[in-house]
Design brief:
This protein has about 260 residues and is of the alpha+beta class. The chain has eight helices and eight strands, in the order H-E-E-E-E-H-E-E-E-E-H-H-H-H-H-H. Helices cover about 40% and strands about 20% of the residues. Helix 3 runs antiparallel to helix 8 and helix 7 packs antiparallel against helix 8.
Length: about 260
């Protein structure tokens, strides 16, 4: 999974767990994350306006508690106009949505900046008011069966266009959905989001099958290889469907527990 999406999922899961357990939030930054800050909306005081910036994830959560947060969700679109943009930073359009006591709803979206000197990333999450937020919080269904179906189909497409390496990736994601605990993220020693095991299987399958990026990704050579086989339509349809199922699986896994 793209690192930016992975991070926001882990932050949301950690905050959700802390809220449920009424405990402190714990978050382990990945080795390429140099700084994670959160800029809150200005708050009007009696004679001044306060602008608070949290210097790390636990400090952000503590301030959300002071603002009387009641619930938290991860949101991301299930489709994009151009999958090729997903290889660039800050293009995933994902947010952490905070539901505060009294009906206020706000969301945090991230901007990633690369520090070329230290070869690490500075990440700033900025809070924005969600005007006209829906009266009912978004809910998501378990899409395991439809996810299995598209993985099986796109695996066969990958084989037909001689992308056997991607066929193996799709098979591994399918194996995880079928019960395997051979998680891709574990192999890279990446801390997994603290969510129930059933949700974790779905999340790890989504993480494995999220093959959309830049050079070397499913966006790179496969469309041309599909074109050479006269399978442009199949490639386009199954790629869009895969992205949709990956996003729906991630939304369910992080939010519904």
């Amino acid at each position: 999974m793209n690192g930016q999406m992975y991070q926001i999922c882990c932050i949301t899961a950690a905050a959700k767990k802390a809220l449920k357990e009424k405990s402190a939030l714990t978050y382990t930054p990945l080795k390429y994350e140099k700084k994670i800050e959160f800029q809150f909306l200005p708050e009007k005081k009696l004679f001044s306006t306060k602008k608070y910036k949290a210097e790390n994830v636990p400090a952000w959560y503590d301030y959300c508690l002071k603002k009387r947060i009641q619930d938290i969700k991860f949101l991301a679109p299930a489709a994009v106009k151009d999958r090729n943009i997903l290889g660039f930073s800050s293009t995933r359009q994902s947010s952490v949505v905070c539901f505060y006591k009294g009906g206020e709803v706000a969301y945090f979206s991230a901007q990633w900046e690369f520090d070329s000197a230290q070869k690490m990333w500075d990440i700033l999450y900025t809070e924005q008011e969600w005007k006209d937020a829906p009266s009912v919080k978004p809910q998501f269904k378990n899409n395991t069966e439809s996810f299995k179906s598209v993985l099986s189909e796109i695996k066969e497409l990958a084989r037909k266009i001689d992308c056997n390496n991607f066929a193996m990736v799709f098979q591994k994601a399918l194996d995880i959905l079928l019960g395997s605990s051979d998680y891709t993220d574990t192999a890279y020693y990446i801390p997994r989001p603290e969510i129930p095991e059933e949700n974790l299987h779905l999340f790890e399958a989504a993480s494995t099958a999220d093959v959309f990026g830049a050079m070397g990704s499913w966006n790179d050579s496969p469309p041309y290889m599909a074109h050479e086989k006269g399978m442009d339509k199949e490639y386009e349809f199954l790629s869009s469907e895969l992205l949709k199922q990956v996003r729906l699986a991630t939304l369910y896994a992080i939010n519904e527990w």
